[in-house]
Amino acid sequence: MDENRIHDPRKVTQAFPDPNLLDFRVLRNLLCLEKTQLARRVPFCQWPQQEVTMKMMQVLSQWLLEVCEHQQCEEGVYQLCLCLLCTYMSMSPVKIRQLQRLGSVCLFLASKMRDLVPITVEKLCMYTDYSVTAQKIMTWELLVLSKLHWNLVAVVPDDFLEHILVYLQLWQWLKLIRRHAQTYIVLCTVDYSFYTYGPSVVAASSVVAAVFGLGLLPRSGTGVDLILNVAALIEADSDNLRKCQEMMEIAFANTLHGTRPL
Question: Of residues 72 and 8, which shows the higher confidence score?
Answer without folding.
Answer: 72
